Amino acid sequence: MKKINYSKLKAVPETEDFSGKYENNGVIAKYLVSSYFKSVAKLVLKTQGVESAHEIGVGEGWSTMRLKKLVSNLTGSEFVLSLVEIAKKNNPELNIFNESVYELEFNDNSVDLVFLLEVLEHLDYPEIALEELKRISKKYIILGVPREPLWRFLNMCRFKYLKDFGNTPGHLNHWSKKGLIKLIEKKYGKVIAVESPLPWTIVLAKKHEF
Questions:
Q1: Cβ–Cβ contacts within 10 Å for residue 172, how many?
Q2: Closest Cα to residue 65, out of 96, 42, 39?
Q3: Do 187 and 134 touch, CB atoms closer than 8 A?
Q4: Residues sharing a CB contact under 8 Å with residue 118, sequence separation 6 or more, in sequence order
Q5: What is the distance between the alpha carbons of residues 28 and 197, in angstroms, rounded to a whole number?
Q6: What's the distance, CA 108 to chain centroid?
Q7: Which of 79, 121, 159, 200 has the fewest CB atoms lying closer than 10 Å?
Q8: What are 63-82's pLDDT values in tens digits?
Q9: What is the DSSP code (8-state) at residue 14?
Q10: With 80 as the cut, is the pLDDT of residue 19 above it?
Q11: Is the distance from CB of 57 to CB of 119 less than 8 angstroms?
Q12: Which stretches of 8-52 are DSSP H helices?
């Protein structure tokens, strides 16, 4: 596996605001987030024999608060150390800790279901991250990213980030639904279900068995 030089990464998660969509009280924003997690819940229902789950990139733990209602034995992790403490306060009953998606703390084949929600688009090395997910995952991943080019188009309709053609700051990667499925099936396993809440793509994939 490629050795990661963290000092040379383009991604700077310490400077990004990952909580905005959860703290936005607008009717449209609330509807979109609600639709997103309804789609996640549908995918969770399609899994079988899940006794452990882990969310990577929890941020301040807002998504974790929703996921813990869907699965049992949930743990979480976050790369930005200052956010770990906030996530713990928001989810005091859960084990939430600091780790990098490129160097996960779990043993091989030790977690039944791994969540990676709105993280992959921020990463310098998405394929390496997927290799790590595959290493620790025993059965499934649920992974969500912005659906492109729709995401950028909608930003431009809101007159946001026009100089960057609608690209949200911190988004280093961009996938269509087809492109995301292709990547996951190359690096992880078979995509068995897809949800498309506006404006995201969320997939459930089952690990390849060799």
A1: 15
A2: 96
A3: yes
A4: 18, 57, 144, 145, 146, 200
A5: 13
A6: 20
A7: 159
A8: 999 999 999 999 999 999 99
A9: G
A10: no
A11: yes
A12: 20-23, 27-45
Give yes or no for a contact between 37 and 135, defined as CB atoms under 8 angstroms apart: no
Distances (CA, A) of 47 to 3, 126, 137: 33, 24, 13
How far apart are alpha carbons 102 and 131 in whole angstroms?
9
- φ, ψ dihedrals at 114, nearest 5°: -115, 130
Q: What are phi and psi of 38, to 5 degrees?
A: -65, -40
CA atoms within 13 Å, Cβ hemisphere of 6: 10
Provide φ and ψ at 118, rounded to 5°. 55, 45
**In the chain, what are the domains?**
21-207 (3.40.50.150)
Q: For 12, how many CA atoms within 13 A lie in the half-sphere containing its CB? A: 5
Predicted TM-score (pTM) above 0.70: yes
Q: Which of 93, 103, 92 is nearest to 72 (CA)?
A: 93
- At 127-171, the pLDDT tens digits run 999 999 999 999 999 999 999 999 999 999 999 999 999 999 999
- pLDDT for residue 210: 45
